[in-house]
Queue: 3 jobs
Job 1
Amino acid sequence: MTSNTIKRTLISAAVFGVLFFLLNYFSGTHHSITSMVFKSLLSALVFGILYLVLFSIVNSPERKYKFGITIPIALLITIIVSAIFSALKVGIVVGLILGVVAGYIWEYIEKKNGSSDK
């Protein structure tokens, strides 16, 4: 993993955490500052982890192609299905997980067959 990716992750997570805090602070309903700071730090941490994982996954053009196809398709399908059950947040999470798993399955099958799409 390059130090450039880690630097971008830290900067993006910090900006996201600050924006999250400001949006919650100026939303009109004031909760305690400590809980808002904790939620902002937690959201920045989760965002940073997701950012780092995503950019670690798509480190080559072939992987960008594979995951660029599987993740949006899985997200679309799970959002449509979860909208029927009124659980969109669950559909988004499940779609991301299924998209990443499908991309890895695609790589595994391609590696097993020894073929490539070049």
Note: The CA atoms of residues 23 and 57 lie 30 Å apart.
Job 2
Amino acid sequence: MQSSPMLDFVTTQAQLILDTFYEAVVACGRKPPFKPSVIVATTPDATRYDPANHAIILVPYEVLQPPRRAAMDRFAAIGTLSLSGREQYIKVFNNLLVAHELGHWLQEMAQQTLNRWQAEYQANQIMVAFWREYPAAPPAAATERRLANFVAQSPNMPTRFQIIQA
């Protein structure tokens, strides 16, 4: 995939998040055996932590298939930040969730035995804690607004599927 100003921006922002997260881990007195890197996927996939490559895999909006782009348009329409589908995707999958994926890196470092539910729940807790501690890494909307945008739900969603917000 050719580099573009937007792709460079997304990669740079993710690297800033990774650097801030890594520095916070080191500041806690930990000495990780490696620092993860950022890799940009060239095919549609999922944003994730890849333990084999010790990397956060970012999937750029540009490689998404039309149905996924349409889904992002719908997600953005119910969001709280008045973003386009593209902007929503970048804010969530190329920015906010980088800290979630780094939570999986921490789990790897701790050699935790977790089932899928526990791993995802804990990574979400780590993500929220990170963004509350470092709301301006990189500069963005306030953490509470960003998290509210992330969990926004359609008013048509059945009650049993709605996230309970305190």
Note: Helices lie at 5-27, 66-78, 85-110, 116-133, 143-150.
Job 3
Amino acid sequence: MTFLVFYFILFVVLIFQGTHVAGEVKTPLGTLPEEVGQNPVASARWGILLIAVGFFGSTVGLLGFRYPALAALRPALLGLGLGILALFGLWVLFLGRKPEFIGKPAVADDHGHGQH
């Protein structure tokens, strides 16, 4: 029973995270500056992958209640889902956001007086 709870929570999280990442491309929430935004093409691809795996895992999990042969696939699909979630996390942390600084720094306006 505990396995099924974690199984279905994982695939629902994949679906929601995928819709968030894919939706962030077209309608950003604006919580981050534009310089550190995600790559739109990669975000869309990750979103589609997460949504597809989430729906596939959920569907196989639900059909496993009716067909015992599909229930045997649940542990392998749980491993696949955890692996994809780990890869997505690594992408977000290390590869997804590359700052692109635009423009030049502003000229200092202190004229030698300094701030007191």
Note: The longest helix spans residues 2-26.
